[in-house]
Amino acid sequence: MLRVQSLKKEFPTRGEPLVVLRDVAMELAAGEGMAVVGPSGSGKSTLLHILGTLERPTTGTVEFGGRDPFALGDRELAAFRNSHVGFVFQDHHLLPQCSALENVLVPTFVQATRDPNVESRARELLDRVGLANRVQHRPAELSGGERQRVAIARAFINRPSLLLADEPTGNLDRKTAAAVADLFFDLQRAEGAALVVVTHSAELATRFSRRCELVDGSLVPC
Question: What does the domain layout of the chain look like in residue ranges?
Answer without folding.
Answer: 2-221
